[in-house]
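Data card: per-record layout.
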Amino acid sequence: MKTACTRLFLLLALLLSVGIAQAKDLKVGVINSDQILANFNEYRQAMGILQDEKQDWDRQIGNREAEIQAELEDFRLQENALSPTARSEQRAKIDRKIAELEEFRSSIYSEESGRFYTRNQEVMEPLIERVNEAIQQVAEEEGYDLILDNSVPVVVYVAEDAIDVNLNERILNKLQGEN
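The structure for this 179-residue chain is written out next.
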């Protein structure tokens, strides 16, 4: 809640400063990126492909889990009949399979390096780029200075000549004691 209020305050401050700083009228547009993506056929197709791949990986993981579970149940049934050495070997074999499963799961789903993450980036980044390019083209063609996305509180486009919004250098100077 606090973050939303802060973002709203910053947006209002930005709009007020634009009104003061600019003599011309500010043309603001609003989009909903969720709706755009939901209606973008290539995006929907890509999501279908990713879902199919995810289901295949989930199926592989499920099969491995079921195999390990069956081996654990067999081990528990036979545990008392096994010699200590055979029991230790059998348990080590099951532990190796559990470790291999976790390694496989991590190779698929770990953030940054997992196959699912990598595949998602490969498939989605070009489509998201195309959406952003389209937003910029519409903004420039129709003279929008600012485009807001109402699905998330984010400014997605600001015309280069609309306002000076990059305050990084001034803030860094202030932090370093320069005025």
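Known properties of this structure: The mean pLDDT is 80. Strands lie at 28-31, 146-149, 154-158.

See the next section for split statistics.
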